[in-house]
Amino acid sequence: MPLLHRLPRQCIILAQIRFNHATNLARINKVVIANRGEIAMRVLRTARRLGIETVAVFSDADANSLHTRSADQAYHIGQASPLKSYLRMYALVDVAKKSGAQAIHPGYGFLSENPEFAELCAAEGIIFIGPSANAIRDMGMKNTAKKIMIEAGVPVIEGYNGDNQDPEYLFQKAKEIGFPVMMKAVRGGGGKGMRIARSEKDFFESLESAKSESSKAFGDDAMIIEKFVQRPRHVEVQVFGDQHDNYVYLWERDCSIQRRHQKIIEEAPAPGLSMETRHRLGKAAVDAARAVKYVGAGTVEFIMDPRGDFYFMEMNTRLQVEHPISEAITESTAASNRATL
């Protein structure tokens, strides 16, 4: 699998454009940055290096922020609350039309993994710099994602990801899998709706707790059940895809040091892995991206057991907060390569 040894930092706004006709490609001359803070500035600086004009959006709270002052144009989109500003899909599309921008970059958070926003952009003839609405939906549902990965031959953890959510039925499935088991919210993320049942006597209490948290966080209490991997490593792979079935991976990041399922430290490349394992991880990540016809930057996350076997966990269908770590190691590699020419 080829690696982009020379990939520059403009990879963060890499996009292939799909209009009504698949062969119709358009150049991006101006982009709306539908975000604020650090990610807005990173997109802005990259766009400037590429000769692309930038349009900032800002709430009442961000009128004098750096991204607002740094962009070529800036538009007010609402009150301080994100619900009344950065999450207003139609307001963002309106800014793109008023400013003459061809594209919207969502950054991370806010609307970056909202399939309805991706669909709205497409319907209005605006380029959404990210994956398709279908890819966002499929990877956002843990049960659907797991089915797709099984069909694609990507390693997955033994478990149950069916529709029957009766607690007694889930209990029987957990016994078939073998304790300890982990239950995960189908629509979950960020560690919410996750519980471990280490024995049969823990199961129903853990299930009820996971369902309750999932319902409050995501409005859905459906669960999948998986064999719990003890002493795991959490390793994620940065991938990129375009609309011509081209996919690459940019090494991996180890994010095993966590607190309450939240990442604290990332190391890249992941320590202690053989090159053979790194390439197997990369190939599995590319296979996962290809299975959903992924476009743009994404991250495929794996759980790895003490033997070095790894299993698909989820795919983040957006640019990640951790992406600068991959930028740092690929920039370092590129600089090294240039020095030897």
What can you see in these coordinates?
It is built from 10 helices and 14 strands. Helix 4 runs antiparallel to helix 5 (133-140). The strands form 3 sheets. A 5-stranded parallel β-sheet has the order 3-2-1-4-5. The chain is globular and about 60 Å long. The protein is 35% helix and 24% strand. It has 3 domains: 19-129, Rossmann fold, CATH 3.40.50; 158-227, Dna Ligase, domain 1 (2-Layer Sandwich), CATH 3.30.1490; 230-339, D-amino Acid Aminotransferase, Chain A, domain 1 (2-Layer Sandwich). Strand 7 (181-185) and strand 8 (194-197) form a beta hairpin. The chain has 341 residues and is α/β, with parallel strands linked by helices. The chain has helices at 37-49, 66-70, 89-99, 115-123, 133-140, 142-152, 167-177, 203-218, 275-291, 323-339; strands at residues 30-33, 53-59, 73-78, 103-105, 127-128, 159-160, 181-185, 194-197, 223-227, 233-241, 247-259, 262-267, 296-304, 310-316.
